[in-house]
Write the structure tokens for this entry.
Amino acid sequence: MISENDIIKICKEYNIQVSEINNFIDSSKGEDDIRYNYVINNKFVLKMNTNGVITEKTLMEIDALQNRYRSIGVYCPRIYKTRECNYLYLYSKDSTDYQCYIEEYAPYKTARDVIDTYEGKLKMLGHLGRLAALYTNVDLVETHSMWSIIDLAPLDENIDEKQGNLNSLVESLNNRSFNVLADRLVTINEEMREIIKSNFASLPRCVYQGDLNPSNVLVDDKGDFIGIIDSNLFGTEVNINCFLNECMYYLEEKDFETLSALEIYNKMNDMQAKLLNKILEYYELNDVENKCFNAYKMIIDISFYPNVEIMKYCLEENKEVEKVIELITLMIDDK
């Protein structure tokens, strides 16, 4: 374990004198992926990892991205440098090597502590349009965001996540003998991907934080959006792909229990359109984006992870199966 003396030694490399350790958060994923977070003096967060993912280059790119967010009025914590002017500091303890860095402690609460509402998303998502309007195709990074289609994100293996999600939905449909619908999904997915591939190089891109879940979104005392933390899943992304993913409606089991398939479908599209319009108040789609827009929307509709998981659950548990099948049919008929 890391002792107080260890923490003092590491912080000294960043010219920070430790007066108190306010909190400790262990977000480790296992013995090979230790993630320790120490709140220091209520001003700094010392982050210690063993997975080797965080590098000096990564931190430099994250700091540059967070400067961009601050330039459009979105709070992002600063990353501090050591006395040697590096972001990363390597520390060994008991034969374990830790990649360490220190970030500003955000003086706001997360959206996880308040109700995640449509109104809250509406206030928050406009910043994506402002960011893209200023920084599209500017100093893109090699890392791709978790939303990536065609390109692979760091956690993807061989295929992008959306393709993996679709494969698993197709398998569930086949297991329930909905083979014709499963085959249609495969065919339409391939057709939409071909449209994207033929225009892929020309699609505008930007670097995004890439993970706007409530635990990473900051709000003020009134519950209004004020900033973002945790850019570990940051990366370059096709603008319209980022926009459409972040505007997606997350299906719930109660949707299938209380609404018809058509009502669910209309609810999903209405929510996405309203949120997307907020982004597009600040960013104008060009011709190639308009050309590929429906292809991206189709792929996202049929392979968005949380929604795929809900539909698979219903299929596997024999709950509202007819509505699930009708909803999928509505999605692929609207192409």
User: Anything to note?
Assistant: Residues 4-107 form a domain with the Phosphorylase Kinase; domain 1 fold (CATH 3.30.200.20).
